[in-house]
Predict the structure.
Amino acid sequence: MSMQSTHGDTGRVASSAPDATGPDALVTEHLYLVQHVVNQLASRYPRHIDRGDLWSAGAHGLVEASRRYDPSTGVPFARFAQIRIRGAMVDSTRTRDWASRGLRRGLRALHDCEAKFEDQHGRQPEAAELADALGIEVTELERRRAAAVRTTLLHLDQPIAGPDADETTLGEMVADSGDDGDPEAALAHKELLGTVRTAVQFLPAVQREVVERCYFQGDLLRDVADTLAVTEARVSQLRTEALNAIRAYLSTTDDTVPAVPAQAPGVRRRAAYVAELTAQTNWRSRLDAAPVARAVRRSA
């Protein structure tokens, strides 16, 4: 009995042991092929092609090869896997490349022709000479050269010689263009401008006219008063009420804007304005400065 039990246990252990010829074992045994193919292709690709990305694509190709391999074909797995690995790397590179294959062929032809001319004449060709050798017009040659510039990546962390002969990086040499160089700051600035424009547009008609003329058009209070047929004091009051309303709304969207004092006149009108603006706009409409159309009241 004990011998049968032992035999049965041995059979279960043997059945659970890993298959030395299975897909996982093939991947582990031939993983070195991935780096081998990377080394072969790296010399043909430009510097901006990340070798780590190539390796990852090749490893994926190796796994696929292990799943698709059929030993009955008689083809050694290493040879079969190398083809799959190389194909995976090439496909990955093509999907990441923004230049068309036709453009890449044209650039290779240009470079090959230029190198051949230099070997024959010992100097770089003139534009007309190179265009003649390629059988194209000079304008077409310039177009191809411009395309080559657009398809060249520069690494910002690439070390270069600085103005004082000290080593620096290309990124440190690029001038900061203000908020345009910081997408987050640029977006925040655009949203702020849109919010202010939206807040002004939602003011009652007379208050909006006073704010626009005083702050956007530079009109004097007396000119605005003459147009509205009211006193300058009334225009000043309308302006204050409008600014308090805008400030009340901005304080709900920006913690840095102080709230309007509770004793300031027009509490109910201000609260209704803030509620209406909050209900009828969102961050996207404020960002685009395009609030929902509404009827306005013209009353002084």
